[in-house]
């Protein structure tokens, strides 16, 4: 500190000698700093040589030309995970910079001042891929091309990665048989935000064609039979030689022909394939060299208990072949296993072969010689030593039993060993930790009768004593944690339940911001092993909070909407399970091709975890066109267009129309998947319809609006409430109809309000092609007429379906449907509100709506209806299913006495072709109780499964 003093001299201040000396010294210092500015610098700056140094400062510079709302500074710092004050090493620096490589180009410098490191990082982010447009992809779908690429909309754009993408797409088309596909990827930068639109242009060029297939070595099977089983040859023949040749399909043909030969008994067959390509016209000459080997004939001797037919099911020659006799050895093993399961403990199976030539063709006769021995049958099961558990309970755990109505009583040593393990497991579950269970079997060698003895030494029973949870300063009170425990004082002690309780404690604490929680139970047994005191040591780990949320790829989807869907707020306790659930919910919105949530800092056990949500949006706009023929509507055409991400909040705005031989329908609607931020889906729309169903004497025309609310509960349950207003008018069809035939009031326009609560259970494994599971629904229409009481009724509907696949090629499907209409405003019910049955979707074999009809052949409806069906869907290969079925239906409580209340039965057969979007089927149903003047049956064409 420099202070100054002054004395008066002739009216002027005069500096003292001390001040003058200080002034001179200051002037010298100033002059020296001017002449040599670096001589008196605060500290010298040098380059870092890689030695560990404390990190004094981090300077991050982001150089971007893109217009987005992403906090690049925050994201980059979160991804690096470096903090001032920690030791900087080359490895630590490399780990910190590695995540930034996915975001863009980086360069860094490290300066050393005063023995500390100063890090300077410059990040130049990549742009994002906004859209990927694909041209020339036929015959592949766009999705096939996108799946071949490793980039998607929303990913970072790196020009250096585009050549690799071109190669991936070209390779995908080569696999489809194209000779030299040319793929060009170009891009353009969007003026609006600086991101990139990518164009993938595919010039497929010529493709390979199969000119002929030459077969050599097939002496037992003709050329035609083999060629017909080759998909490559069939496609070429049907397309007059113009079909694309695929090497993968040709390879599959080799396997298919090998399996065919093995099924015909040629277990040693070897088929080698070769192709030669003519570069001039790209035609392919296929060649198959077949070494058939001998044909196997298998015989059995000594098999009194099992028939030859049963034993042939144990042969694996058709599945595995017999290279190195492996097929015969495995077959012998399977035959022996079959006998052992039947109680033949001493069975011996041997095989021998004999080669011969019959009509100039090699033959190998295989004879399996079986020495069955005496069949061992359990005649008595004795249980000894059990004091706590009664004998009936123990016998219920055993599969080894004496003969009964559905039990053979066969003695199998392996099954008895399984019984011993099951008995010990039962005792363990009751707290007997030291239980011993021994088995013995006494076999009468002459009669094969077996006496089985199970000897049990129970030992002490261990019960839970005290349970303690430590420490006490946990984020949840100890008493609340105790409620999570399954084991309690006095319960049988079981170590596996203790481990389950460890997981329950951790699962209870983790959502409160402790993702690294660890709970470990320490058990102390008393000296007599009758008491187990458990102490759960809970280490909650560091308290972790949610940091910032960053979103990439949401070009159209609003960030505010995504933040609401994520549910994780900054500074809130971090819950990993909530993050995964939010990721799943975002994927279920049907507006993204993919959603990936990355946790930044979780693996490093940071106190703050940041979330990076990277999404690839689907194209929001769509246009769909379709048409065809169905038995219940005739020729039809439909169209639908919409926006699946309206306003960037996953709302779907759509409009559609359908016209067919039975009328038309149009609708416009909007769907909100997250009503007011909840898990309720809401749909609101307007519609217009004119319907003239086949064989009906009336038609309807309606105009209305409705709203529907639906909520899923878990994986299988859905509840819904639909509200609808409809202005409906019924009219008569045909010139011969007069108002005398129906109630005139039903022909006047009617206003109707309908409320429909419903509940549905769905556990099917597939929506398009179910093979397992159940579908059941219950709905009630509460209808109120605004102009008359004709529409005052309650309509109940129950629909139950089940699917079971006992064999890979067989699926059994069943359905029961029931409807009931109960009027409450009067007895009259309009015809258009009654139930009608018959046709493709109810009872096949009858015309549409003609299950019940009057003397003039006109359909009759009822207030009660029942329909049921059973199908066996048999996979016969090549995407075809053969479907025998049995249907039944009944209509009663009809307006008049026309027709019969009896249950009507039909049976028939269908053939379905399975497409990626469902089956197309042709069915013929035959009436089992045909009546006079009725047709024997009816033909039906359907799209999709009838149930």
Automatic annotation (TrEMBL):
Keyword Repeat: yes
Location in the cell: Membrane
Keyword set includes Membrane: yes
Alphabetical GO biological process terms: membrane assembly
Pfam families registered for this protein in UniProt: Omp85 (PF01103), POTRA (PF07244)
Domain Bacterial surface antigen (D15) residues, every copy: 645-947
Protein name: BamA/TamA family outer membrane protein
InterPro entries noted in UniProt: Bac_surfAg_D15 (IPR000184), BamA/TamA_POTRA (IPR010827), D15-like (IPR039910), OM_assembly_BamA (IPR023707)
Any coiled-coil regions, as ranges: none
Signal sequence, renumbered to the chain: 1-41
Keyword line: Cell outer membrane, Membrane, Repeat, Signal, Transmembrane, Transmembrane beta strand
Domain POTRA: 129-205, 210-285, 297-373, 378-459, 544-613
Cellular component annotations (GO), alphabetically ordered: outer membrane
